[in-house]
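Here's a chain:
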Amino acid sequence: MGSRKHIKAQERKEANKSLYFAKLNNVPTSPRKMRLVVDMIRGMEAFKALGVLKFSTKEASGRVEKLLLSAINNWEQKNDKKAEAGELYVSEVYVDSARMLKRLRPAPQGRGHRIRKRSNHVTLFVDTKKSENQE
């Protein structure tokens, strides 16, 4: 690795130490379906978002709920204290498309239609209200 890349990588690592996040890679649901669930909780208080996800009928909400719990635990580990209600909120969430499995489905007259089985990556950031006001 060149020295400039190494310096940039170190800067990125240092910047990530002050962020509290969790990532979920290669989730076998389409990004479009996952974004419907993620849009429900974006900007919401963390424990309220857990309640919304718990009672959502979408299949993807179970995975996002587990991811949010992981992000909250990451925050607790980095700060050495327990999260309280009203303190944490979901600051940023985004869904990126991941690998796509391509399959063929038989079609009439010897043809084949392509089926794309999509998957996604979800990244969820958690932050405190207090640090938002200080900056």
Q: What stands out?
A: The chain has a mean pLDDT of 92. Strands lie at 20-27, 88-106, 112-128. The radius of gyration is 19 Å.
